[in-house]
Amino acid sequence: MDKLEIYVHIPFCAKKCDYCDFLSMRGDSVTKREYVSALINEIKLSKDRMEGYLVDTIFIGGGTPSILEGKYIGEIMDAIRQNCVVDENAEITIECNPGTLDKYKLKYYKDLGINRISIGLQSANDDELMAIGRIHNFDKFLESYKLAREAGFSNINVDIMSALPGQSIESYRETLKKVTDLNPEHISAYSLIVEEETPLYDRVEAAENAGYSILPDEDTEREMYYETGKFLKDSGYMRYEISNYSKVGYECRHNIGYWKRKDYLGFGLGAASLYKNTRYSNIAGLSQYISVMSGGNLEENENFWGETIYQDDIWDIQEDPLTVIQGKIQKLSNKDMMEEFMFLGLRMMEGISVDEFEEKFGRKFETVYGNVADKLISQGLLKKNDNRIMLTDRGIDVSNYAMSEFLL
Ligand code: SF4
């Protein structure tokens, strides 16, 4: 049986963080109820697509999935299990934020077969947490982390961030220390990106206009980046992807599936899918998603994707609402797939297999990418090990440049 991954998007959060440009929002209890019903409907309608597949990873992400009442997560898991075959050893992750967990919820997750918890900490420094508008402090995180351990979770990820407003190399090191002292199995470490149209962007810009910066300077940011790799390595974590570190055997299988271009179906608002070499995304409008997936009436000209829907088509669409919520459909060409194979595969420290490339695409690697690979090897950004090709440490530092070279 071919393997399939499932991603479920829960777009609700207690409050929008100041740096957040993800598809997340506050939601009242009625909206949450309606959303979960719509989501379950989407899962049921996707049964045919999941036929013949073995689902070996499920990732319930957000937003903050743990903000939902536990029973909703139970209903979602039931819908998945009733409509596809889930591997008994599947990795099943739920993203949680401190302040939204209690021991009953965690025990319930465990009973549902969820076996991996991902907790968003970002920083162990309360001032830094406040500066980015998080709802919790470090103590609240500690409480959630301990509850997760007490509930029996033996695979926990902690998200941290560097380059935060007011962060120094010392305070960042302190975060690394406090987190590694807890001994989580997995740590994701990202550098803050200040996105436009966020409150943080406005603050950064206002400070710059006034002649100062609230962010660490470039050198400090770089130092934090190097410190991440060094500190985590010294603490027994293996870097297996540009921003992801784990104890041996605890790499996130779901994310590895993305980088290896495994088929995945995304359910929920804005969720993306890769299915039989076609990429597509769900609509990002909450009320539209709920309305269509709840069998609401469609009006002529209702137009989520810039396409006109005519009255005659509406009956077909109501038969299969998935055709309305899914758009940005991109049927991947061989060229697209080769490019993706390279720039997603090179995110992983193990790199890509030349044999696998040739087997998948029926082309000699040398013919397609020989020149690019030689150039990057001569620049010290890429290295070859047996039949594998991977980024060097220097290549990881300039990974965007190195990967862009593989665009055909
Ligand atoms: S918890 Fe995550 S998804 Fe929610 S607002 Fe904050 S950064 Fe965004």
UniProtKB/TrEMBL annotation:
<keyword id="KW-0143">Chaperone</keyword>
<keyword id="KW-0411">Iron-sulfur</keyword>
<dbReference type="InterPro" id="IPR004559">
    <property type="entry name" value="HemW-like"/>
</dbReference>
<keyword id="KW-0479">Metal-binding</keyword>
<keyword id="KW-0408">Iron</keyword>
<dbReference type="InterPro" id="IPR058240">
    <property type="entry name" value="rSAM_sf"/>
</dbReference>
<dbReference type="InterPro" id="IPR013785">
    <property type="entry name" value="Aldolase_TIM"/>
</dbReference>
<protein>
    <recommendedName>
        <fullName>Heme chaperone HemW</fullName>
    </recommendedName>
</protein>
<dbReference type="Pfam" id="PF04055">
    <property type="entry name" value="Radical_SAM"/>
</dbReference>
<dbReference type="Pfam" id="PF06969">
    <property type="entry name" value="HemN_C"/>
</dbReference>
<dbReference type="InterPro" id="IPR006638">
    <property type="entry name" value="Elp3/MiaA/NifB-like_rSAM"/>
</dbReference>
<dbReference type="InterPro" id="IPR010723">
    <property type="entry name" value="HemN_C"/>
</dbReference>
<keyword id="KW-0963">Cytoplasm</keyword>
<dbReference type="InterPro" id="IPR007197">
    <property type="entry name" value="rSAM"/>
</dbReference>
<comment type="similarity">
    <text>Belongs to the anaerobic coproporphyrinogen-III oxidase family. HemW subfamily.</text>
</comment>
<keyword id="KW-0004">4Fe-4S</keyword>
<keyword id="KW-0349">Heme</keyword>
<feature type="domain" description="Radical SAM core">
    <location>
        <begin position="1"/>
        <end position="241"/>
    </location>
</feature>
<keyword id="KW-0949">S-adenosyl-L-methionine</keyword>
<dbReference type="InterPro" id="IPR034505">
    <property type="entry name" value="Coproporphyrinogen-III_oxidase"/>
</dbReference>
<comment type="function">
    <text>Probably acts as a heme chaperone, transferring heme to an unknown acceptor. Binds one molecule of heme per monomer, possibly covalently. Binds 1 [4Fe-4S] cluster. The cluster is coordinated with 3 cysteines and an exchangeable S-adenosyl-L-methionine.</text>
</comment>
